Amino acid sequence: MSRKELEKSSQWIVQETTCLDELTIAEGASITAAEGYSVTMTVDGVNKPIVPGKYQGKVILNVTENLLISSNVFKTAVYVENGKVVPEKSVLAFAVGGEVTDTYAKNITLTSEEEAVNGIYITGDCEYSVDNATITMTGNGGNDFVGCGAGILANGNAKVTVNKAKIKTQGAVRTAIFAGEHSTLTVNDSSIEVLDGKLPEDYTFTIEPGKMKEVPWMLGLSGNCRATNAVAYSTVRYNNTHIKAQKWGCLSTDAVDCCRLYATNCLIETVESGYGAYTIADCQGYFSGCTFNINDYALVIASESYGTFTDGCVVNSGRFGVMIHGGTGGGALTLNKGSVFNTKSAVIQVKERGGNIVVDGAELNSESGIILLAMESDDPILRAIARGEGLPPGFPVPPDKDGAEGEINEAWTTGKTEDAPKKEPAVFSTNLEASFKNVNLKGDFINSMTKRGDVILSFENATITGAITTGISDPIDSAPTQETYYMIGEVKNTYCSTDEEYGIKVSLDEKSTWIVDKSSYLNRITVATGASVKAADGKMLTMTVNGTPTSIKAGDTYEGKIVLMVK
Fold first, then answer.
1. CA diameter of the chain
2. Burial class for 16, CB neighbours closer than 10 Å (0-12, 13-18, 19+)
3. In this structure, how many other beta carbons lie within 10 angstroms of the beta carbon of residue 479?
4. How many Cβ atoms are within 10 Å of 527's Cβ, its own excluded?
5. In sequence order, what DSSP letters do the residues of 97-153 get, joined into one string?
6. Quick one: which of 266, 297, 462, 468 has the most CB atoms within 10 Å?
7. Is the CB of residue 450 less than 8 Å from the CB of residue 502?
C-alpha cells in the first residue's frame, strides 16, 4: 500500500504524476508542481482540491504542463488541440468511463470539486463531438470572459457538437458552456443547470472583464453564475436543450466582436433572478419555438445588437419582456410568427436610446398595462457617461473594451469622458422606431425620454386599446442603489404633454383602429383613409391641436401639441 504523509508546514514539489493509496496533508503543508507545470488531485476519479485532510482510495497527483490563456492557468480533464488529445495538458484521471479519442468523447463522467478547473477544452482547427457526457462541477470558476472553470469550452476555430449532455455547476462564474475566439458550438438535447456560489471574502464589486464575478447590479439583477457565455467571434446553437440558472442569466454574450446566438425549441429558465438571454455589440440572438420562464427579462439588448423571437416562442416573465439599453441606438428587436409575451411589467422597455422594433403577428400581454415604455436610463453608469457627467463616486475601473454586459468603457482612470481615448463611434439615430403589424394589443405606449429622441410608431392591420402618449417616468421610491437593485426599471408613469424637443408620433394604416381609453399626448398623428381613432365604450373623445379643438378625420395628418382627451 502506497502512502504519503505531509507534516505541518512541509512542502512537496511533485515532479511527475504519482499514484497513492493514501495521502495525508497536515495544516500548513503544501503540494505544488515544478515551474511551468500544474498539479491536480483526483480521488477515485473525482477531482478534489488539494487542502489539508486525509485521502484514501485511488489517489492520483496529476502533473500537467501549464495551459496559459489570457494570464489564466487552465487545468482540464480533456484538452484537445488541432484534432489531437494532448495528454501532457489533460487530467484524464477524472474523465471516467466511456471513451476519449481525438475526434470525440463519449459516455464520460467528469466530476470536479476544485475551483477553476475545466471539463473539456477544445481548440485549434478541428471538429469534435461530446456525446452523453455527465459533468458536475462544484466550486468557483476563475474568469468567465475566457471560460476558466467551464464545463465545456470551445476556442480557436474548433467546431464542437454536444449531444445529450447533463451539465450542472455550482459556484461563482462556474459557467457550464463557453465559446470563444472563432469557434462554433452546437448543443443538442442537453440539460444545463447552474447554481450560485459564495464570492471570495476579499472580492469587491467590479465590472472589469476577467475580474467581474457577479452580474452588474445596474441591470436590476442579482447572482454570480451565468449558465453560458459566448465571446469574440463565436457562434453558438442550442437545440432542444433545457438551460436553467438560479440567478444572473442563461444565454449570455459579452466582450463581443461578432457573435451569433441561436436557440431552437429550448426551455430557458431562471429561478430567483435573471435574464433568459443577453446580446451586446455585433451580436444577433435568434430564438425559435423556445419557452422562457424567467424572473426579469427574456432578453436584454445592449448597444447595436439584435434579438428575434419567432415561431411561437412563449415568454413568461416576472417583470419585463425585453429591455434595450446602452449606446445611442442601432440594432433591432423582432417579435413575430405567433410568439407570445406574458409579463407583469412592460413588455418592451427602452432606456434612453434609439433603435428599431418590429412586432408582426405576436401576442403581447402585460399585467401592468404597458406594452412599450421608452424612458430615461436609471443605470447610474450608463446615464452619467451618456450625459457627459463622468463616473459616479465609488464606481470601479471599467473594462478596456466593450464588455461587462453593456457598461461603457470610457474614462476608466479619470471618470471624465473628455480624458478618455478618442475613437470614432458609430452614428445611430436616437429615435426609437417601432412597427406593429397584424396585432390586437391592449396596453399603453409611452415616451418619457423626450430629451433624447422621438418614439415613432406605425400600425398596420392593428387594433390598439390604450394610451399612446408622452409622459414622465419617476422612480417608485428613490433612485435605485446597489442595495435596492431590484428597483431598477420600476417606475411610476404620469401621462402629460412635453415641452422637450422630442415626443411621440403615430401613423395608422387603413386597416388599423386605435381605441383611446386614457387621455393621450402626442406630437403627430396620421390617420389613413379607412383607419379609426375612437373612444372606449362609454367614453367620449375630443382632440385639440395646439390648444384648438379639432375633429379627427381619416385621411389627415395632425402635428403640434396634440391632446386626445378621454372623459
1. 99
2. exposed
3. 12
4. 22
5. SSEE-SSEEES-EEEE-STTEEEEEEESS-EEEEES-EEEEES--SBTTTTBT-SEE
6. 297
7. yes
C-alpha cell at 200: 471570495
Q: What is the pLDDT of residue 420?
A: 35
Nearest Cα neighbor of 365 from 421, 265, 440 is 440
The pTM of this model reads: 0.94
The residue ranges of every structural domain in the chain are: 3-64, 70-293, 307-378+431-567
Do 446 and 370 meet the contact criterion of CB atoms below 8 Å apart?
yes
* Cβ count within 10 A of residue 427: 8
pLDDT of residue 375: 98
Q: Is the pLDDT of residue 322 over 80?
A: yes
pLDDT at 426 over 80: no
Residue type (1 letter), 244: K
> Taking CA 521 as the corner, what is the angle to CA 519 and CA 522, rounded to the nearest 5 degrees?
140
Residue type for position 434:
A
Taking 60 as the threshold, does the pLDDT of residue 174 lie above it?
A: yes
End-to-end C-alpha distance for the chain, whole angstroms: 91
- The CA distance from 60 to 44, in Å, is 8
Which pLDDT score, from 0 to 100, does residue 421 have?
39
Average pLDDT over residues 333-353: 98
Of 164-173, 277-286, 382-391, 444-453, give the lowest mean pLDDT range.
Answer: 382-391
Instruction: Give tens-digit pLDDT for 382-395.
Output: 777 666 676 665 55
Burial of 1 (0-12, 13-18, 19+ CB in 10 A): exposed
| Spatial CB neighbours of 283, under 8 Å, sequence gap ≥ 6 | 253, 256, 258, 259, 260, 261, 305, 306
The DSSP bridge partners found for residue 122 are 80, 154
